[in-house]
Amino acid sequence: MFEHFRTLDDIVRARLSRAWSMENDTAALLGLCARFARDLDVGDLCRGQAEQSRMRADRVQACLVGLGVKLGANGCPATEGIADEGKAAIRRCDDSVVDAAILSTALECAHFQIATYQALAEQAKAIRAKSVAALARGHREQAEQFRDVVMADLPRVTATLAEG
Question: Which of 5, 15, 27, 99 is the 20 to 30 A CA-CA neighbour of 46?
Answer without folding.
Answer: 15
